[in-house]
Design goal:
The complex is a heterodimer of chains A (401) and B (399).
Chain A: E1 3-4, H1 6-13, H2 17-25, E2 37-38, H3 43-53, H4 58-67, E3 86-90, H5 91-98, H6 102-111, E4 122-124, H7 127-139, H8 144-179, H9 184-232, E5 244-250, H10 253-260, H11 262-282, E6 285-291, E7 294-299, H12 302-318, E8 324-330, E9 334-336, E10 339-341, H13 343-354, E11 360-363, H14 364-368, E12 376-384, E13 391-398
Parallel strand pairs in A: 8-11
Antiparallel strand pairs in A: 1-2, 3-4, 5-7, 5-8, 6-7, 9-10, 11-13, 12-13
Chain B: H1 6-13, H2 17-25, H3 39-53, H4 58-66, E1 86-90, H5 91-98, H6 102-111, E2 122-124, H7 127-139, H8 144-179, H9 184-193, H10 196-230, E3 242-248, H11 251-258, H12 260-280, E4 284-289, E5 292-297, H13 300-316, E6 322-328, E7 332-334, E8 337-339, H14 341-352, E9 358-361, H15 362-367, E10 374-382, E11 389-396
Parallel strand pairs in B: 6-9
Antiparallel strand pairs in B: 1-2, 3-5, 3-6, 4-5, 7-8, 9-11, 10-11
Helix pairs in contact in B: 1-2, 1-3, 6-7, 6-8, 11-12, 12-13
Classes of the chains: A alpha+beta (401), B alpha+beta (399).
């Protein structure tokens, strides 16, 4: 176990020697006979700081530790090494050493959900793993602004997983213990038993899903590349087809929340999510994001997108959910930071707004691209849509027969 | 002995023996000298299926491979082990063995972005890692709802990461290389064989640890508060959070007038600006909506300060004016998102706010203690989809 003198421990935890002295005096930190602090024990500093920031007075914490009502010993467990310490390198120094532009390095801190750092702030241990990747990419000519955007997507996505996982831990493990009236030490032991092994399994599981998802997208890249090569060799005609963007809204979702309550509305959102995800994936599409009262989808091919939309509307009705209405439009889109942008997206959303409950409305572009699909289209004529200049030719889609 | 006989290789790749024979004939897959197929062969088969599904003709593919214009050899690089073969156990059998309900196990396939399987389908090698976690969670007493949520959020979040990385890979590596006349399979082989895949996984785990540290801290604070309260040393003040919506005025029109790239660029700049203000005031962005952002602030007061800062920042950056709505009250956290009436009312307040305005509910005013912020009552207002009038105030920072 590594040990630090007071000055070094203060630097590693981003605090002052005075502050450490105070924590030692209060019995929260303990010095060893050589007046040093163990590396795992100084993680307490950051946790105590968060507690104080959350409104718990330091003296009160110290009193509770003293009386045995509280203990920070669980933090010594290796699993808590994610309460990372600082390295001995600043962002500024690291930028010089690695050749990664300083603003990009500092964006790592922000992507982890922390405040923007100063160039002379020290880098955290876990941030170093990200820096290694950036160094690799920058050296190969990846443009920094693209990498910065990527950092935000990764940070934001992992935040969602960490939050949901932390929340599950609270509701499934900790709360039953609180309810049973367990004391601090008991909770430490009981949750320690469950967390043993789980932390590691969680990481494997996360990587497994990441790898599986990357297979889908790498496959997409390979397919595009191969198509281009075959075309060059005259062995294949590539059809450059625009994707379709699709919006599905639930009629009266706000009113439903008001009438049936928050829990019912949240439950409806989960049911809807499951149903539409399944249907869209089966037709080569995927939900991009969940909006306030509906879902935005991307379909590589417009034809299957229309079929999926009709299935979803029928599925929503069968499941006893309030009726859905859908809009689809096909055209070029910009993919950025895990989301899609552009006029095609906006127009699809406006078409969905215009659709009546239970209706699937599509643009002329979608009809033109849906040659092989088993769908019937009825033109409803040119329509003026909010925020869109000029009239748009819309069609209502239905299943034949 | 390594490798599989033809029949087993076909099963692990999820195709019929007939189809595998055809791929051998076309020269797309070859068995070793001993007539056995490696796991690399199984990966070739599943990639070929994807190519065919995407409309690439099998004959053309075979001709290009035989003619040396293309090669699938890059699939032998270690990074491509993720194009994993099927294991020899079905979902139903795994459920039996692990005690995890089969419906839950089958959700792994969906979280990985594939269509729902049947209980009799073979589990993929890579999926077994998640099954281990489910087994432990189920035995630790995790409810089915909580486990399902975990799965869905993993799938959704990792999809975004993988898609974004892949787009970067396409724009920063493959496209430039192809423009320079290289073949895609050459680029993939060399670069992926390099440290990229491994380095990026390490980076992701590093970032995940930091995020976990924050999420765990929330639990810690919560737990310590419970214990201190039980010991009579501290009284918990339960203050509900504030939900906040910031919209950009005329975003749709702007897209139409200035073009897609300008609109995407605006979203990017707005994202950075809003994120920074939120974090500085203890809040964070929950999601990006079509023409704005949804945020949560554990404390309503700092939320109002952040909103005022954001509106000013948006104006300074020369972006179209923003308008913001905040409402405080109970919310339901589920699958990484927030639900409930508080969320809806906040969104409606934002709709009601005029360009450049920050409008808040009475609940937000009551929970704010920032002396530097002034509230001016607008009076009771009828909001769309909300029953009854709502008392609204505009917020400003005088001086």
């Amino acid at each position: 176990m590594e040990r630090y003198g007071l000055a070094e421990a203060a630097e590693r935890t981003g605090t002052s020697v005075d502050e450490l002295d105070r924590l030692i005096e209060l019995g929260i930190l303990t010095l060893d006979p050589e007046h040093r602090l163990a590396a795992n024990s100084i993680r307490r500093v950051g946790v105590v700081r968060s507690l104080v920031a959350a409104g718990m007075p330091l003296e009160l914490l110290a009193g509770a530790v003293h009386s045995g009502d509280l203990s920070f010993d669980f933090l010594d467990d290796p699993a808590y090494s994610r309460f990372a310490l600082f390295t001995d390198e600043t962002f500024q120094e690291l930028s010089v050493r690695t050749g990664v532009p300083l603003p990009l390095l500092m964006a790592v801190r922000e992507a982890t959900g922390s405040r923007q750092p100063f160039p002379e702030d020290r880098v955290r241990e876990d941030e170093m793993a990200v820096v290694t990747l950036l160094e690799f990419q920058v050296a190969r000519g990846f443009r920094p602004f693209i990498l910065e955007r990527n950092l935000r997507v990764i940070g934001d996505s992992l935040r969602r997983i960490a939050d949901v996982s932390g929340d599950a831990w609270r509701s499934e493990v900790l709360e039953p213990l609180y309810t049973a009236g367990s004391g601090g030490a008991e909770i430490g032991v009981a949750s320690g038993e469950i967390s043993e092994g789980m932390t590691e399994l969680e990481e494997h599981a996360l990587l497994a899903i990441y790898r599986a998802q990357s297979v889908h997208v790498w496959t997409g890249n390979i397919v595009t590349g191969f198509g281009a090569v075959l075309e060059r060799a005259g062995l294949h005609d590539r059809l450059d087809q625009s994707p379709a963007m699709c919006f599905l809204d639930i009629t009266g979702y706000t009113r439903l929340t008001q009438e049936r309550g928050d829990a019912a509305a949240a439950d409806l959102a989960t049911k809807l999510a499951r149903l539409v995800e399944r249907t869209s994936v089966r037709h080569g599409g995927r939900p991009v994001k969940w909006l306030g009262d509906g879902v935005m989808f991307y379909f590589k091919d417009p034809g299957p997108g229309v079929v999926a939309a009709l299935e979803m509307v029928a599925g929503v009705a069968e499941a006893g959910l309030p009726p859905a209405h859908v809009g689809l439009h096909a055209g070029p889109v910009i993919f950025q930071g895990g989301d899609y942008y552009g006029q095609t997206v906006n127009l699809a959303s406006r078409i969905a707004d215009y659709a009546r409950p239970g209706e699937v409305l599509v643009s002329q572009e979608v009809v033109d691209a849906s040659g092989g699909a088993a769908v019937h289209f009825a033109e409803i004529g040119p329509v003026e849509l909010k925020g869109v200049s000029g009239a748009v030719r819309l069609h209502s889609a239905s299943r034949p027969g | 002995m390594d490798g599989y006989e033809l029949a087993e290789a076909a099963q692990r790749a999820g195709i019929s023996a007939e189809e595998l024979r055809r791929l051998v004939e076309l020269g797309i897959v070859s068995p070793g000298a001993d007539g056995r197929f490696t796991s690399g062969a199984a990966r070739r088969v599943s990639l070929v299926r994807s190519l065919v599904d995407a409309g690439v003709p099998l004959d053309g593919l075979g001709a290009a491979i035989r003619g040396g214009q293309l090669s699938l050899d890059f699939l032998d690089a270690p990074a491509f082990e993720r194009f994993s073969a099927l294991s020899d156990i079905t979902f139903a059998q795994l459920a039996e063995r692990s005690g995890v309900p089969v419906e839950l196990l089958m959700l792994i396939r969906e979280a990985a972005g594939s269509p729902a399987p049947l209980p009799g389908d073979l589990v993929r090698d890579e999926e077994l890692a998640f099954a281990d976690l489910l087994e432990l969670s189920v035995h630790a007493g995790f409810s089915r709802t909580a486990t399902q949520q975990l799965l869905r959020v993993h799938g959704d979040a990792m999809r975004r990461v993988a898609e974004t990385e892949s787009a970067i890979w396409a724009s920063e590596v493959i496209q430039p290389a192809m423009d320079a006349g290289k073949r895609p399979d050459e680029v993939l082989g060399v670069e992926f064989g390099d440290r990229f895949a491994e380095t990026s996984e390490r980076a992701m785990m590093g970032m995940y640890h930091l995020r976990q540290g924050q999420a765990w801290t929330v639990n810690l604070i919560d737990g310590l508060e419970v214990m201190l309260a039980a010991a009579g040393l501290h009284s918990r003040l339960d203050h509900p959070p504030a939900m906040c919506f910031l919209d950009i005025t005329g975003y749709t029109r702007l897209t139409q007038e200035r073009g897609d790239a300008a609109a995407a660029e605006l979203a990017d700049r707005l994202g950075r600006l809003v994120q920074r203000s939120a974090v500085n005031h203890g809040g964070r962005t929950v999601k990006w909506l079509g023409d704005g952002v949804m945020l949560i602030f554990p404390k309503p007061g700092p939320g109002v300060a952040a909103a005022l800062e954001m509106v000013a920042g948006v104006a300074e950056a020369g972006l179209p004016p923003a308008h913001v709505g905040l409402h405080a009250g109970p919310v339901i956290f589920q699958e990484g998102d927030y639900y409930g009436q508080t969320v809806n009312v906040a969104a409606r307040i934002a709709d009601y706010a005029r360009p450049g305005e920050v409008v808040v509910s009475q609940e937000v005013v009551d929970a704010s203690d920032d002396a530097g912020i002034q509230f001016r009552e607008i009076g009771p207002v009828e909001l769309k989809g909300v029953a009854g009038a709502v008392r609204l105030h505009t917020a400003s920072r005088p001086g």
